[in-house]
Automatic annotation (TrEMBL):
Pfam families assigned to the protein according to its UniProt record, in alphabetical order: SIS
Lineage, broadest ranks: Bacteria, Bacillati, Actinomycetota, Actinomycetes, Kitasatosporales
GO annotation, biological process: amino sugar catabolic process; peptidoglycan turnover
Protein name per the record: N-acetylmuramic acid 6-phosphate etherase
The keyword Cell inner membrane belongs to this UniProt entry's keyword annotation: no
GO molecular function terms noted in the UniProt entry: carbohydrate derivative binding; carbon-oxygen lyase activity; ether hydrolase activity
Natural source organism: Streptomyces sp. SID7958
EC number(s) stated in the UniProt entry for this protein: 4.2.1.126
């Protein structure tokens, strides 16, 4: 649909399955990207946006897990990082959309809130408890001195974007975030 994005990945740029998937998705209105490691590829031509990372021949002929695979992984990392930033999943260089489902992630959530706010451990723990462990909510509570309900409302009004919610509350957050 028009709400979807499909990224076709093929080292050669001519893999029928990848080209076919991108062609089908584009016909259905999805945004399409073709990621290949050869110039003038069929995959890039089939997509609205072609990304061709020309890495040259592999050290071991046909072993596309080497240069081509590494290059494609780097591009996919960039695409996913940019996507997370645009979706409001980050604040500065912090991943703030953590779902703290185990002890390791609860500790990470605590560190993220501490780094984002500069608050002491006790204040961070109180904010995380008050917000049900929601990192963005806890940051908003600490930086705007608001309650959990107001933080939830502000984030909802800002479509989950912490920076926009802070602006609505009249705070820009720490200078380095």
């Amino acid at each position: 649909t028009a709400d979807d994005t499909v990224v076709g990945v093929s080292a050669s740029g001519r893999t029928p399955y990848a080209v076919g998937a991108v062609t089908h998705a584009r016909a259905r209105g999805a945004l399409t990207v073709g990621l290949a490691c050869n110039p003038d590829s069929a995959l890039a031509a089939a997509a609205e946006h072609g990304i061709e990372v020309v890495v040259g021949p592999e050290l071991l002929t046909g072993s596309t897990r080497l240069k081509a695979g590494t290059a494609q992984k780097l591009v996919l990392n960039m695409l996913s990082t940019i996507t997370m930033i645009r979706l409001g999943k980050t604040y500065g260089n912090l991943m703030v959309d953590v779902r703290a489902s185990n002890d390791k992630l609860r500790a990470r959530s605590h560190r993220i809130v501490t780094l984002a706010t500069g608050a002491d451990d006790a204040a961070v723990e109180r904010a995380l408890t008050a917000t049900g462990g929601e990192v963005k909510h806890a940051i908003l509570v600490l930086l705007t001195d608001t309650d959990a309900g107001t933080a939830a409302r502000l984030l909802d009004e800002a479509d989950g974007h912490l920076r926009a919610a802070l602006a609505k509350a009249g705070s820009s957050g720490p200078a380095d975030a």
